[in-house]
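Sample A.
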Amino acid sequence: MLHTIQKLIGENKKKLYFPIFLMCIDSLGSMSLYFMLYLTVLDLFYGTLTMQNVFNYTLVCLVSVIYRIIIYRKSYLLCFKNAFTVTGQLRIDLADHFRKLSLGYFNQNSTGYLISTLTNDIRSFEGVLSHALSFLIKTVTLCGLILIGTFFINWKLALAECVVLIFSAPLLHYGNRLVSRFGIKKRNLTNQMISTVMEYMKGIKVFKSHNMTSTHFSRLLESLEKVRKVSVNIECRMAPSTALYSIIVNFLMPLVLLWGSYMLLGGGITSETLIAFLIMSIAISALLISFEHYYILLKDLKLAAENLEKAMEQSPLPYSDHSFILNDYSVEFQHVHFSYDNGKEVLHDISFTAPNGSVTALIGPSGSGKSTVANLIARFWDVNSGTITIGGRHIMELNPDCLLESISAVFQENTLLSDTILGNILVGNPNAGMEEVIRATKAACCHDFISSLPQGYQTVVAEGGASLSGGEKQRIAIARAILKNAPILLLDESTASLDADNEAKINVALDYLMKEKTVFVIAHRLNTIQNADQILLLNQGHIEEMGSHDKLMAQKGHYYSMVREQEKAKTWIAKEA
């Protein structure tokens, strides 16, 4: 466990040393209180208690309490402060690490797992650093010091105390095994529950429209019920070992009393020794109860730490050139083969060149590989074989972050943040001034509708852009891309689901956006790509036809048939039966 923590926090582990050290020396204050109690009992036993002794003992106790208040307060605050600082940095590191991973990682893992890792696991790990770890070390230190002290007083009685520890240790180990076994099951069910909740919230509109609300809600309740049952099951399974452990450690004082009285009557020890052991056995029993609480908590949180470690061990996209300058932004695919995580190849021997400043249209039936080509250009995935170059540079050599600075994308479904409209547009260029933003929004044909809103650019957008229409969201996404002004532009069905009025406005914005850029347009509507410099017709992962509109029409192949079919569709007239 300690190795896992050290691996996750790296050099930040040094921030935990001092507060843990303070927690340990706080134990000395606790020991002095027990010692004063021992001296008081002795005075009462021998009838030597005087007011001077009471004053001296009280003074020592007062100093010890003040000492403990100062040390404990300092250590307690430092534990929390440093733990939150360390885990705050871990959150940033984990989010940054996720950002560098291939999209395949997110396809392989459920939404519930990813959310649980970024929230529940980090919070649990934070609990390890702020509570369990430091207090566990303090408890072990104090218990160890008391046990060592008992061996100096009488080793035989000290061994009797160790017998209790020997019998209680297997119960702790058994409880740890239960936590590990059922904790994994509970974690998997919790991940499923989170995924179900997310699915329900996102799909509530669809479920209502199909009158599935109650049915689907039953599925959610079933998921919640499974988590409840396994949680109760864990507590029931752990209750016997926990109760037995508490009984055994609380039996420490009766055992010392029994064995110590036998030795006292036999002349093996003095009455002072027996009194000392009785007091220390009470202290050790309390510490062992506290130790069990923090130990089980630490082992329960071990699953979270191991999962975080597993997530951090995922290999990011490799590269060798951290910073680079491209001379041009031509894109070339050379014998590219690609398959997603299921192993089925979706691109087969793709080769083409998109010259700098040209417009390349990708068309073809659904599932033909159009979006995959765009995703590979942005290096959301890496190819299985073949090469992709930009400006003559192999993209697998280039830092993905630097590469994406040269790429803008406008998708059919664009994500808007729960932020102001201005904040959403500034995603394209956080350092842009207001004049640049307005120029971008005017070019994207959205300045007028933004200005008409009650708070204008400061209007807060609902989560996911739910408070805006599809056309408004699309134009904001285009304004974001205009503001970024990247030399490579990916347009993936950016007008597919819009009405004629919005499509006309967005096409005007796209014409402005595409100027002097290397553009890749994915579209089903052929009239939107006829002026492209080259058209790639993909079919089942192959480039079936490639060339300009006029060239492909002259070939009278698949592209020619698609154009003719769409032209026929324009002449269709609905008639009454």
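Sample B, a different protein:
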Amino acid sequence: MATIPAAADAATWFGHPRQLARLFSTELWERFGFYGLRALLVLYLTKHFVFGDRVAGGMYGAMLSMTYLTPFIGGIMADRFLGSKRAVKFGAIIMAVGYFVLCFGGEAAKPTATFDGVTHAVSIEQHGGVEQRFVVASGQRLLIHGNDDGSVALMNGGTTVRTLAKDAFTGDATRSPLYVAIMLAALSAIVVGNGFFKPNISTMVGALYAPGDRRRDAGFTIFYMGINLGSLGSQLLCPVLADTFGWWAGFGLAAAGMLVAWSLIQFDGGRLAGYGEPPASAATKDRAPLIYVLAVLATALPWLLFSNTITATAAPAGAGIVAYLLALPILGKLLFATFLIGVPAILVWSWRAGSRTEFEMMLAAMILIVFNVTFWTLFEQAGSSLTLFADRNTDLSIFGLFTITAGQTQFFNAIFIVLLAPVFAAMWAALARRGAEPGIPVKFAIALIGVGAGFLFLVWGTHYAGPDFKVAIWWLAGLYLIHSMAELCISPVGLSMITKLSIARVVGMMMGMWFLSISVAEYVGGIVAQGASVDTVGGQVTNLKLSLDTYAGVFQTIGFWAVVIGGILLAGSFLLKRLMHGVD
């Protein structure tokens, strides 16, 4: 273990070690970059590279799922060889490089339409402030118009020349393989860099406090507020720059934020001396250069997984669950296999190696982990299907004064968390004083019901869509308000729950299962977003009514089942409470 100086320090920051301010700022700027990417990624894939919704949703899910897997490796490298400080700096540099590489997206993909076995170029034109798609076929310039039943009409001067069945018309694009490869390399660098940065910045915060220091939990609360402040800023600014100047500007701002995070650690003026230093064994043989080289080479693995996600072909409808699982991309197979084998295997081990009480507590933890997958699967629609819904079927005008972009709608979650977190903290404290604070299973159940209720609220709003098949932005804001309150019921208690319920000698492994569950949820969230896919031509839907109906149908289904699942957990919460043996 690295030598850690005494936490007692004469100079404090809000009653905490002054180094917390620097680590808080570092996390803020790193999250500024990451959430800037999150706000832009699906829109970038569907508009610049003109990928269909299915590919974009799969890529988004793969990206976020891998960001929850790589920290396991990054944490080991820091503990054994690098030390947290060097790992954080290296991760920041790799991530900044990834963001900068995204700035070089090259020429936008050229949309195409294929029917009758022939691929035609598609032109995009503005008419009355509305984008329209045209294709030249049989010597005629024809407007592409989607029908309510999913078929496509080719029109000339208001007259339908041909009607093509849904399966007889395919929208795609001609895109540069080189620029696609560069984009995948950038995302891969961000995934690897995140693995070094994310776990080790938190480790440095923990090192500020001596064992038993009661300020630790409050210090982490302050530290994690930096996440929400950083995401709030980037989700407002990056989409504006991307919309005004081009994608390069949005990604460039994210890269600048990442460089600020790196500089705060690199040029700390000695303020972080003694924190996050390499282990003593590294003094005799420093393996850092080798690790850096291997980490750069390791970006090839996520690159291959991303490529496989793009090229994977879905199983035919009605083929069955086995055929569906076999058709999943490699990443999906690995995640599901690990999770489905790992959960029962750990329970079998705990039944054999632990006491009955320990086994029951582990069983309660595993049950809550499974429910955790459901919550984050639906919550993470924010960056995928909900962003596309905002782009296509939401009136983004604010009181008629100005208009925000689709990517900016994600800031609602961040601002609600910043505003509501102190309220919820005070509410839980007040309930605790009265002995009425809900237990962990009840909070999980409330969160699941809440995330479902948010989707049902938005579905209600679709009944009030205007003649342009767009809902007022306040319906989307209402969804984010409900989702933010649900998040505050589950997010703060998850990690604490794992440490309290796990058998002491496998706490680390159970932490790994917790993050694996979130990784699985992020991936499944991409699958759910694929279920809300709408056929597009040149990155845009050709029938907004069909788009609205599709989103409303999917959101109603997942909202209903989330409420049902949350209700089941609520009904069984007293049984879980017994299994937890007083842990709360």
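Observation for Sample B: The chain has 19 helices and 15 strands.
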